[in-house]
Amino acid sequence: MKTRRLSVCVCVAVAAGVVAGTLPAAAQELADFDYENLTFRGVGVDWGYLWPDRVEPTQSFGIRVDLGYLGPGLRLIPSVGYWSSRFRAEEVDELEGRVAQLVASQTEGPPPAVDLGTIDWSDVRTGLDAQVMWSTPGTGFTFAGLGAAVHLLNGDGEAISGTFIEDLLDSVTAGFNAHAGMEYPIVDRLRVYGQGRYEIMGDLRYFEFRTGLQVMTGRQTRGDERAR
Question: What contacts 96, CB < 8 A, 6 or more positions away?
């Protein structure tokens, strides 16, 4: 737990610090921010693993698109992703207690025994990340940034199907993240990447690690090709 919290703090601090540190330079070079290098340049497929605070740790799957650079070193990455997991036992116990108390308050009788069984929660995410990029000695890249997303959350379970509990778990909510990672061109037009992310939503937060492969298909800029 301490290691995970430390990773989250490092990820958030690095991303926020780097983005903040680039603002003065960006303000001085507003003329450089145009659409000249903003174009489809590639697509990546990734696999991840996340550690949420309300559901069990689980895998995630996603696709991202490289739209190139809006300004010097500022890259835009839209993406879609999906994960599904089961509510933690303590979360279900707490929910059962609240339902029992609600029934008791309406009937003025003793709290009934409530068994909600297992409850699943899934998320379909559509987001956009803004990343500050640096080249590293050799042929690699590092990046850090911030992002926003729309999350379509869906609750499911045999006992809650068609009830107000399912309605409460089904929602559309905004999320925000800080992230940092690395990319490496293993061959021309093919990159491997990895990153750590901390996502914040209304009633759910999680740290996630992702890794994937990206095929570069569009116009290349300086540094895109693998050094020979």
Answer: 114, 115, 116
59 in a domain, yes or no?
Answer: yes
Each of the 228 residues of the chain gets a pLDDT tens digit; together they read 444 444 444 444 444 444 444 444 433 344 455 667 788 889 999 999 999 999 999 999 999 999 988 888 899 999 999 999 999 999 888 887 888 788 777 777 777 778 888 999 999 999 999 999 988 877 789 999 999 999 999 999 988 888 888 898 999 999 999 999 999 999 888 999 999 999 999 889 999 999 999 999 866 665 565 543
180 located within any domain: yes
| Residue 44's CATH number | 2.40.160.20
Domain range holding 179?
A: 2-86+119-216
- Is residue 114 in a domain? no
Number of residues assigned to the chain: 228
pTM of the entire predicted model:
0.78
